[in-house]
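Weekend entry, working from home. Most of the wet-lab plans are on hold until the incubator is repaired, so I used the time to fold the two sequences that have been sitting in the queue since the last round of cloning. Logging both here for the record. First:
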Amino acid sequence: MKKPVSSLLMMILFTFILSACGAGSSPSTPSDESLPEGEQDMSFKMTSPAFAQGEPIPQKYACNGQEVSPPLQWDDVPQTTQSLALIMDDPDAPAGTWVHWVLYNLPAGTRALSENIPPDISLPDGSRHGKNSWGRFGYGGPCPPSGVHRYFFKLYALDIKPDLPAGASKEQLLATMEGHILGQAEVMGTYSK
């Protein structure tokens, strides 16, 4: 007779502990009001007219094609944005993440990049190219040695205009952006030769 009473007490105790801990309710998340100003919504939307999210990037934009940069467009950038920065990389590269494009100090009002951005160190709008993993300025197209790789185009809305000379690395840009990112947009395409 002791066993059923003991089991019943354990069940009551377990139920009490679960209800006191909030089990069964939705997990607690901070409200928008508790987030730092400017960080209520960390994301905005970016797309490419050349390829859909998660779909193959056309050969025209790859190393075995014309190797021109694809067009990109975005909207809903946070209002307090001072500049934009773009990083394109391939996390599937055999030697570790391969950086294909670093572009920063894009004016805050920019809402698109046209196809075939020239690899100039500085562009007429004041934006600057960093160096990619080939050690070159500008865009370097998808060029996987084998298999299907993913290519992430990440756009950052910043509350600063990074004080970096042209030719900065992805790591230098990320270090400068730390604590200054108001929002981020991303589009990913795949490629195989």
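Second, folded right after the first finished:
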Amino acid sequence: MTDLGTLPGGTYSSASAINARGQVTGTANSTAGGASHAFRWTASGGMQDLGTLGGTYSSASAINTRGQVAGGADTAPGARHAFRWTASGGMQDLGTLGGSSCSEATGINALGQVTGNAFGLDAACGPMDSPRHAFRWTASGGMQDLGTLNGTWSSASAINERGQVTGYAGAADGGGHAFRWTASGGMQDLGTLGGSYSFPAGINARGQVAGSATSPAGGTSHAFRWTASGGMQDLGTLGGTYSGASAINEWGQVAGGADTAGGTVLINHAFRWTASGGMQDLGTLGGDYGSSASAINARGQVAGYSSTPDGTTHAFLWTP
């Protein structure tokens, strides 16, 4: 594990995504106690502050192979809007689905297409858990509403190179189910592991999806990988009771966090799952209490955060 540090004067950082070139994006504070800003980290340039849309706060969710970043940032009037950041153009406001609603981006593909969520669709921009719809943004078409599964709400998590989107939406059983959206087929319900909820985190170019889903007994969540041929597969744990997937790469390898077996105390560790090797414990930065993985690239490199017992976190990069 490599410690990626913080922004100048800051005290914490957390990685959210990594691309095939080993570039990492995430969120860090720039001064002790200061507001968080999105960052992009490169091996040659270190951690770069990506700024805001005129407000005080920004956070990054995804980075593509061209080093473009997507996330959400405060505007000067106090709303939050989805953004796309490029090295040549800086931070671009992607707008909303209309009115005074807010938006945040959750994914970006190699074509620069962005997915995310627009909130407060029928009210003033308010709590980020207000009614929301998933969207897909393209440079030519702007922000497109992807609809819902049962007419209530939807939330997008990631987008692949073919413009397919994954997320979760209100289902007929009253829970939230993972979906895969395609331009030709619309929104497809991916089901669960027997419970009422499933939450996807990533989708690769082959249309495979990774995330977390509840089981019938006690509602414990386990990481899953979904494929069109095999459906939803339970990826297990690291010996504890819980696991959750955060990302999937082009080879179908999955990264996330899971409980380890440690007496009466369950400690979360980052993991990498492969079809041949199962779930591998990635450990922590030296002396830290726990860790969690946020992203995995085509080379099998994993990015995430490691935390001390007092809760301070540092972004990490793990290489096989």
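Plan for Monday: verify the second prediction. The chain is about 0% helix and 55% strand.
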